[in-house]
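hi!! sorry for the late reply, been swamped w classes. u asked for the two structures so here they r. pasted raw, havent cleaned anything up. first the sequence of the first protein and right below it the tokens
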Amino acid sequence: MKSDNHYPAGTVVSHWLDSLILQGNPLGDSTRRRIDIYVPYAQSGLGLPLLVDLVGFLAGGPTHTNWKNFGENLPARLDRLIATGELPPVVVALPDCFTCLGGNQYINSAGTGRWADFLLEEVVPFVEGKLGCGGIGKRGVFGKSSGGYGAITHALLYPHFWAAAACHSGDMGFEQLMLPEFPGVLRALTAHNNDIKAWLTDFYSKPKQKGSDLHILMTLAMCATYDPDPAAFMGIRLPVDMLTCEIIPPRWHNFLRWDPLNIAAEHANGLKQLKSLFIDCGTKDQYNLLYGARRLHRLLEQKGIAHVYEEFNDDHSSVDYRMDRSLPVLVQALLK
């Protein structure tokens, strides 16, 4: 049933940021970026903590402010949580980080652009400068799927910047997540003489993209993100043999360097600086992300790093309701 929306409504204002950091980005994506900013009812934003929402692949931040059938968009969810006292007032920024390859992992990549720097050096200062919110110790990041990947990776690599993070069903455990995708990619490319440019040209020309095509696109985007080849079309090269699907060790090694499990093995102690870290995953996750989440949970326990870890009886899709659990945890910690 759709929310009755009788709670006092906060405001959502769309701003535009002309990025200097994204100028000359390898994919030629627009440098003019929309940032939707939610401010609670009867608040100006001044002095409030700041959360940044990193959305999943195939989306941009402003999709979370769109009207939603049979449920709440993010502003409506925030209105309800704040009005019922479950969530302290908070400013939430929703930046558009969409790319022509369908999305973003929110890291600096020679193949897709300096998206971590865009968030750290442009988006957050822009929002904090306009509203007087956030600041050191009062800013957090959250997201699901690719957004969850961005949240945990930012927490690991930039704990001096973020004070709290929530990773919902985030990409990790690349052996279980990504390797099963490559046979399907090779079958799709076979119809285009193993030519990635030809496949993408055909994809972009279609009036309608099939779900299976979107999965191929997502895998190609990961190739451009984690192991880009500057000489290749859109920086895309595969970490497997095009004929046999055998792993090419140097190429796959570059992927694994960006697996949060491997980043955590080196940088996890930095998480001790965080005020709060929330991690969850569905027990029926169809992308096998549960096993990576369990491995990360075990590693953090072994290193004595405080965090909230939860599993829930659901799959990877339509799990925005999990924000009812994570956002209060983050914001209450940011206020301490």
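now the second protein. again sequence first, tokens right under
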Amino acid sequence: MSGTGGSVLVVDVGTSGVRAAVVRPDASVEHVHHAPILPDSPAPGLIEFDATVMADAVLAVANAALHDAGGVEAVGIANQRASTIVWERATGTPVAPGIGWQDLRTVGTCLVLQAQGIRLAPNASATKLMAILDAVDPDRRRAGSGELCFGTVDSWVAWTLSGGASAGTDALHVTDATNAAVTALVDPATIDWDQPLLERLGIPSAVLPRIVDSSGAVGACHALPGAPPICGIAGDQQASLVGQGCTRPGLAKATFGTGGMLDQCTGSGQRPISTGQGAHGTFPIVAFRIDGMATWGVEAVMLSAGSCVEWLRDDLGILTSAAESARIAAECATTGDVWFVPALLGLGTPVWDFGARGTLVGLTRGSGRPELVRAVLEGVAHRGADLVQAAEGDSGLPIHTLRVDGGMSDNEVFVTALADAIGRPVEISPVLEATTLGSGLLAGLAIGNYRSADEIAGIFSPRRVIEPRTDDATRSHMRERWLAARSKAEATIPELSGISF
């Protein structure tokens, strides 16, 4: 490492809470403070949150971490992606509840636009912004005059930390390239706002934030003691990618939380020609942007991962805690040829079947509690193998080892099953959630803690390495059995299976 050795405060806003911590130049994470901010669901399919409550939580945990640390040289932001907030520029007051990334209220809008040749997914920000503007500014007068600000969560956090409306011209209305790219409003050729698309959607450009690099000084945090500069911003999955050192082409990480996301770095060469789905069901992403140059990646998505363990605990009542799943599953050596397909919300990469549903195959009178729990963990592991194969297929780059973080990375049975299913080593992240670390590394790069993104790749040191135990013939047989089970889960609800975005 090189440079000044400055510490970084990171504010990490997830779906259910806000975390602040201090990342040291040696990549250690200290002084962690957390505040819960659970979203609301006023009706089925609707996910909303109070942006003012989020801002208060951001300031509370940030000040607590700074108090413990005694000061920092820079600030980093990591955040849930695509969630959408609109606020008044003059007052900083949100004009409507924030719309969460999981919200499905715009499915109908997406299908109407699809018939017009505009392909947008309901989880992206584009139609969420349209929905808020339709409700509060139907003629777009306020948005067009610059009275309103749109932002994803990183934009809102940067605005809050900069002092917001009270900061006047110093208030920050920005987003980084990783977050901008998942709004579906960006031209992938330029990583700038797509003006023709904005016109077709009726979104005035005056409402949009300025797109900045993922690493680099952006502006001062006037709301914090000492006003340290924001120097790093990244969406949660990209921050996790950097936090696990995947800054070189081919390196990949998977985060297994409620759902699962696999991201692979593909490098800064040829950019994708569109933001659409690849042949194997992945999507191109901006992994990070530094000095105006984007490094790209591909992302594969698992809709149900840890939520399947929560189902065992909360709905079936056969577990008292998620952590207990490893102990119960270890009571049997195999599932007895029982297979579970984790499709509680449909299947993501590679088949993208929203009508698929969770499926158990091969139950016998001898199938007991341990076999069922093991089948669930192994089912999530085989979905992980699906994601690895899809990423390799779309990127053309082999994944020699898979780095993992998230709550399920602490589950011994799961990570062992994952290594067996993918047939290559699994490297466990030194921190359970690598998002905070990744944002800290991006900000640290901007203040000279590291010479380059490539140097960040050399910092990663796994907590453990899990080697696969099965031979190729056994693995091939198991994958065949898994794929046969997965096929039975597909098209359970044909009407939903016919929908694609």
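hope this helps!! also noticed smth abt the second:
The first helix runs from residue 51 to 69.
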